[in-house]
Amino acid sequence: MKFNRQFLIEYKEILGNKLYYIADFHNFEFKLIIEIDGSIHQEQIEYDKERENDIKALGFIVLRFSNDEVLLRWDEVEKKVLSF
Fold first, then answer.
1. CB distance 27 to 46 below 8 Å
2. pTM for the full predicted model
3. How many angstroms separate the CA atoms of 48 and 16, rounded?
4. Closest residue by Cα to residue 71 from 26, 37, 42, 44
5. Running along the chain, 84 residues long, what does each successive block of 10 average in pLDDT?
6. The CA-based dihedral angle spanning residues 67, 71, 74, 80, taken in that order and rounded to the nearest 10 degrees
7. How far is CA 70 from the centre of its chain?
8. 34: how many CB neighbours lie within 10 A of its CB?
9. H or E segment at 68?
10. Beta bridge partners of 33
């Protein structure tokens, strides 16, 4: 699978101003977004939930992993990405 890093997703326009989220990784073929969360995300749970709902409403699939999952349990992360 090919992924683009730091991909802009336009989710809203207000008074001619476009608003974007930046996805950590994006795959065009499957409309798949992968987010890798550091410790800051423990403090912004509600924001992340709203953001994820906005992105899903645009037709994307969102998979979210913690830094520790990626670093310490890569096999599980890879399996989940390949089986979504």
1. no
2. 0.83
3. 25
4. 37
5. 94 93 95 88 79 94 94 95 87
6. 0
7. 14
8. 22
9. helix 67-72
10. 26, 62
